[in-house]
Amino acid sequence: MSQELEAVGIDAFDEQVYRALLARQAAAPAELAGELGAGSERVARALDRMHDRGLVGRLSGPRRRYAAIDPQHAVEALIQERTVALGRVRSAAGELAGLFEAARRGDAKEVEVVSGREALGRWFVRLQQEAKQQVRTLDRPPYALTTANPVEETAMRGGLTYRAVYAPEALEWPGVLDDIRRLVAQGKQARVLPGLRIKLAIADDSLALMPLSLDLTDVRAAVIRPSSLLDALTDYWRLCWTLATPLLAPAEPAGPGEDSAEPGEEDRLLLALLVSGLKDEAIARQLGWSVRTMRRRMSRLHDQLGAANRFQAGAIAARRGWI
Fold it and tell me: Could you report the per-residue pLDDT of 49-96, keeping only the tens digit for each?
């Protein structure tokens, strides 16, 4: 299945619906559902999502019908959204370099460099304690102290919101995926983004903590207070969040013609690892299966979900709340 629009936030099934609508120019969800072999409500949800993104328009009249908007203009608008977000980060590059240079000279109040694992751990706790509304993180290995965050559960019970973007490599560490599942059940929001190269924590819009390298033999981190650097890092976090795939999402009921039977715990875990972007060998290793067994189970889940590929299977499973 074609996935050319994935880079601008359109998943594989939505793109399939969009292509079918382009061929017809205008259609009702039920008409496209018959052509695609999917439930009409599922197609309608996809059309509503694309309406929100400016790819399709809702036609007037008593019937629920949609018309495709010229992709030359609609897709270009989506590209421009991503370009603007990246441009905000790029435009601050000169000032970022100046702030880091000032921090090395010791004459900048906006940036403070701390050294050592213990100092990094203390600042991470302090950042969460100083947050009033939310903590946003980019999370990837290696871990200077521990993969667990002892402050998080208590802070969430006190009303603090946590949103985290994980690198797929984080899910290979023992216990990390189980911790994420438990915390999401308590209200945390989690997504996964392949290629994530930095670690970052932001408290509200007032304080950030960013390790300066992933070398655990020389642990140094920047404590960043309100500045253009903090603004740029916040914009970068938002961009990562937009590009990331939900790891565990709220349930959405199956539409007519869709299999509503929920999978067992092993299949849920398989789907969660699949959405994370891990390779077959890594997934099989986490589950204690052979690669052949993992692929056979995945094929069965494809049939159960009515999915043509693993990206689509992960997206459908996430919308149904299976992971």
Answer: 888 888 888 887 777 888 888 877 777 777 877 777 677 666 666 656
* pTM, to two decimals: 0.57
Give 138-158 as a DSSP string: EE-S--SS-S--TTHHHHHHT
What average pLDDT score do residues 222-228 get?
Answer: 92
Q: How far apart are CA 273 and CA 177, in angstroms?
A: 9
Task: Scan for tokens 């989690």, then name that residue.
Answer: 190
How would you classify the pairing of strands 200-203 and 189-192?
unpaired
Note the pLDDT of residue 171: 83
- 247 contacts 272 by C-beta, under 8 angstroms: yes
Q: Tell me which H or E stretch contains 66.
A: strand 66-68
Strand pairing category for 161-166 and 134-139: parallel
Q: Over the range 42-66, which residues count as b (16 or more CB within 10 Å of their CB) and which as e?
A: bbbbbbebbeebebbeeeeeeeebb
Q: Is the peptide bond before 211 cis (omega within 30 degrees of 0)?
A: no
**Packing angle of the helix pair 176-185, 265-276 (nearest 10 deg):** 100
